[in-house]
Input
Amino acid sequence: MPELIDSFNRPIEYVRLSVTDRCDLRCNYCMPRDFHDFEDREHVLSFEEIERVMAAFGELGVKRIRLTGGEPLVRKGLPDLAARLAALPGIEDLSLSTNAVRLAKHAEALVRAGVSRINVSLDTLQPARFKAITNGRLDKVIDGLMAAKQSRFQPIKLNMVAMRGVNDDEFGDMVDFCLEHDFTLRLIETMPLGESGLDATDHYLDLQTVKQQLAERYDLVPGVMAGGGPAKYMQVVGTNMHIGFITPISQHFCESCNRVRLAADGTLYLCLGQEDKLELRPLLRGGISDAGLREAIVGAIARKPEKHEFREKPLQVVRFMSMTGG
Ligand code: SAM
Ligand code: SF4
Output
């Protein structure tokens, strides 16, 4: 199998695929509450176009795809797309990031379609706080999580964005919830992305201190998880539970970056924190051949930037996470 290698010698084997930039929540670190400036529907790649691009990536050595957004379950027919992607040659692992609001309805179909692993965003277990952060209802997310547990997703990971003054009193409660339900917890540092990123910067919390706090309450040892990506894991001794720390700001992991992001409009973003990109939609709709498509992708990967500069230039990235494909 050929390999996609960038100019810093990093093999690229993972694509985060945003199937929509729309969302049924408004997490305040991700999308401004009054945001409606979504991509024109005709600019959003069709399932056929997505399948074609992902087939090209599969032929070039990409093994893993994560469906994301916006909220991927807002896109009609997502399980059908999942089944088509899972069947592509070379693709070994298909996963989903979701807010779980609509998960109860779709969990079974997604598992049947070949989605093996799932990450659910959950920053709080308190309904009023959940409403304040996301403008949505916590009970729907809990229903979605319980449906995921009934289905055969393994593992189920909760992504909690750690925010000073917002949910920094809830890490212990979240660990206990995950212990009870056999979930993995991943804590994430807020990143300055788009306008809402300013808010995220105000609440930034260095996870190194959170790790120390948790170590006082739980017996933690370094742990390893398959498909862990940039998270550094600790295991709660005597249990199977892992806590991941994702620290793009305090300890960035760009030197081992293995991913690119395909936005819903067909823009291939080479780095979450930089503007370097390749517009694939005009190529696809302009009749490019399969060989031409692969060549364009290889050329773009050669331009993948060395690292993000969230610390050095915190206001540099003007798009929101929901646009890039978080
Ligand atoms: N809607 C799905 C969800 O919430 O899981 C998938 C897309 S969402 C953009 C993917 C992840 O990005 C979520 O876990 C969310 O918490 C994270 N995220 C969004 N904006 C962020 C920011 N400014 N800093 C850190 N994480 C962020
Ligand atoms: Fe929607 Fe996910 Fe962004 Fe929250 S983090 S607004 S759920 S896309």
In short: The chain has one domain: 4-324. The mean pLDDT is 90. DSSP finds eleven helices and twelve strands in the chain. The pocket of iron/sulfur cluster (ligand 2) is lined by residues 23, 25-27, 30-31, 69-71, 99, 121, 134, 321-322 (CB under 6 Å).
